[in-house]
């Protein structure tokens, strides 16, 4: 890193929504306040009460990319996003803390009444719609089930209803959306929570500023848990 980059504030990459909301108490425990809400502000770079820290607001799926390539020193991303990112970009990210926020499950879901057990017998073939292609591929490979994976980016619950897929692999929190669309979760793929991720070069060159924040996140996460 150049001397100029060492002088700039640390940059934390976050996404809007649940992760942002559940990160705020962790920042406050570190003595940091964010003056603006990304849901109402048009700014993508948010200052904080600390001159040594600024936030950037990016898509959840882009957080690991900003951190890995050094545009952000650290970030917070769900295990689901990190799993898919690692499949295409192995290495390059340090994950020191499971923050235990934004918890949910990655599940297989089907139409109510669909005989999933019969459909996944050894040697069968299944059409599965998902945004989480790598996780789904490995899950069904472990079961010995052949799958045709259809990548979607939203409205996942629609796929089984209109015959696009036999099943979906998607995040489930309360299960309310599945129930509203006459779907049921039939199998867990993974427990999901959000992790603190750190750029490895930043950890080496900016440790004096970065490590205290990492330690504070770890303590606050443990206390809130």
UniProtKB/TrEMBL annotation:
Residue span, ATP phosphoribosyltransferase catalytic domain: 59-216
Q: Which GO terms describe its molecular function?
A: ATP binding; ATP phosphoribosyltransferase activity
What does the UniProt keyword field contain? Amino-acid biosynthesis, ATP-binding, Cytoplasm, Glycosyltransferase, Histidine biosynthesis, Nucleotide-binding, Transferase
Q: SUPFAM superfamilies this protein is in?
A: Periplasmic binding protein-like II (SSF53850)
Supply one GO BP term: L-histidine biosynthetic process
| Reaction it catalyzes | 1-(5-phospho-beta-D-ribosyl)-ATP + diphosphate = 5-phospho-alpha-D-ribose 1-diphosphate + ATP
Keyword Transit peptide assigned: no
One of its Pfam families is HisG
Q: In which pathway does it act?
A: Amino-acid biosynthesis; L-histidine biosynthesis; L-histidine from 5-phospho-alpha-D-ribose 1-diphosphate: step 1/9
Q: Where in the cell is it found?
A: Cytoplasm
Q: What residues form the membrane-spanning segments? A: none
Q: Which GO terms describe its cellular component?
A: cytoplasm
Primary residence: cytoplasm
Q: Which domain of life is it from?
A: Bacteria
CDD domains documented for this protein: PBP2_HisGs
The EC number(s) this enzyme carries: 2.4.2.17
Q: Which InterPro entries match?
A: ATP_PRibTrfase_cat, ATP_PRibTrfase_CS, ATP_PRibTrfase_HisG, ATP_PRibTrfase_HisG_short
Tell what the record comments on domains: Lacks the C-terminal regulatory region which is replaced by HisZ.
Q: What exactly does this protein do? A: Catalyzes the condensation of ATP and 5-phosphoribose 1-diphosphate to form N'-(5'-phosphoribosyl)-ATP (PR-ATP). Has a crucial role in the pathway because the rate of histidine biosynthesis seems to be controlled primarily by regulation of HisG enzymatic activity.
Q: Relate the assembly described in the record.
A: Heteromultimer composed of HisG and HisZ subunits.
Record family assignment: Belongs to the ATP phosphoribosyltransferase family. Short subfamily.
- Under which name does UniProt file this protein? ATP phosphoribosyltransferase
Q: Please report the organism this UniProt entry assigns to the protein.
A: Pollutimonas bauzanensis
